[in-house]
Amino acid sequence: MLQKSKKEEMIKDLEGAIKGSESLVFVNFHGLKVNDETTLRKSLRDKEVGYKVSRKTLLKRALKGKAEGEIPELAGEVAIAYSKDQTSSAREIYNFQKTHKGLLNIIGGIFEGKFLGADKMMEIAMIPSREVLYAQFVNLINSPIQRFAVVLDAIAKSKS
């Protein structure tokens, strides 16, 4: 059994992680092996995403008043993934979930100051990164210009 001072320290640690993040994802990690968790933590650290395993009761205490709405049901063994980027924590958990089937489940999260369920967090997880979105946008803008250049080149070749 944990001492009260240790519990308070853990709650403060969780509150600090929650306060310093733009988004937070609740993850059920039941069945995750140690070597898989090590791989997960390393990949999250590389993407500047924090990851903490917590007791549900302590997590619920730390979450009180931190967002609008109702806390989603935290079933099973729960961890949180958090980051300063709004979508990277959900996206990185989702990416790991795709490569390691059945080991992790997104069960909810906090986005823009509101508690969200698993469905909404999965939608957020599927949003590409900012760099990918920029590349897609540039490609979209550049595409008509490239086609126009190809047409002009074809006309020039046909006249010569």
UniProtKB/TrEMBL annotation:
Molecular function terms, GO-annotated: large ribosomal subunit rRNA binding
Keywords: Ribonucleoprotein, Ribosomal protein, RNA-binding, rRNA-binding
Source taxon at top rank: Bacteria
BP GO terms, sorted: translation
Coiled coil: none
Pfam families: Ribosomal_L10
Xref: InterPro entries: Ribosomal_uL10 (IPR001790), Ribosomal_uL10-like_sf (IPR043141), Ribosomal_uL10_bac (IPR022973), Ribosomal_uL10_bac_type (IPR047865)
Cellular compartments per GO CC: ribonucleoprotein complex; ribosome
Function statement: Forms part of the ribosomal stalk, playing a central role in the interaction of the ribosome with GTP-bound translation factors.
NCBIfam families: PRK00099.1-1
PANTHER family named among the record's database cross-references: 39S RIBOSOMAL PROTEIN L10, MITOCHONDRIAL (PTHR11560)
HAMAP family cross-referenced by the UniProt entry: Ribosomal_uL10 (MF_00362)
Family: Belongs to the universal ribosomal protein uL10 family.
Self-association state and partner proteins as the record states: Part of the ribosomal stalk of the 50S ribosomal subunit. The N-terminus interacts with L11 and the large rRNA to form the base of the stalk. The C-terminus forms an elongated spine to which L12 dimers bind in a sequential fashion forming a multimeric L10(L12)X complex.
Designated name of the protein: Large ribosomal subunit protein uL10
